[in-house]
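haha ok so turns out i had the wrong file open the whole time. this is the CORRECT one, sorry everyone. sequence first:
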Amino acid sequence: MPNQKILYITTEMYPYQEDTNMATVVNKMALKMHNEGNDVRVFMPRFGQISERKFQLHEVIRLSGMNIIINDLDQPLIIKVASLPGERLQVYFIDNEEYFKRKQYYFDDEGTPFEDNDERAIFFARGVIETIKKLNWVPDVIHLNGWMSSFVPVYLKTYYESDTYFKDAKIVLSLYNEKDADLDKKIDEKLKFDNISGLKALDNPTIKSFVIESMNYVDTVVKGDEFLDEDLDQAFNETATQKSEYLDVDSINQLY
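then structure:
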């Protein structure tokens, strides 16, 4: 079914990240849909490990310059873009000096999770949503990959609930086995600032609890890893949301 507008929101994608299943799967899905004639865009964080020179990232001035307010603090949103190497597929990078310049992803060199991982996820989710609106490009399908992207449907169905921009978009969530970690206990205050409350994940805010929470805010859940860890597998089996077992990349368009 070509001519769909498909938005991939991900925390990993080959070749910007290597050697992970998620990075490989997102690359293959996006390229397959692109090559079949769909209008595909990819959004991901511009983590400090991603070389701007090697991958030829450049800032999109007309999209940058917005501020995202996180817990009453203004954080400037910088948008960079690159073509996937050797392809005519555009990848947009959400950037911010405070949140994404560091070389590690979610844990410091001692393996301790960063205290602001929650703010980074909120900034990423809101940054993607605001940038898509500024592009004036309305996706038919939004496919989420990686724990940070799980904040997107939570925001779309709460903070942006009265905004009709995304009302017809169908949201797909892929589940992956990611390293779990606690999130800042004050995340409830930060979300309350955006009028978001009552989430079950706030009882025990962790990376995994927010991924599980987001299952309630999407149209379809699919296994991104063939075998999920026990907690995720249980949540997958118990969710009332429409779901799909693991699909190989050649079959992913069945979902769309």
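Residues 3-253 form a domain with the Rossmann fold fold (CATH 3.40.50.2000).
again sry for the mixup
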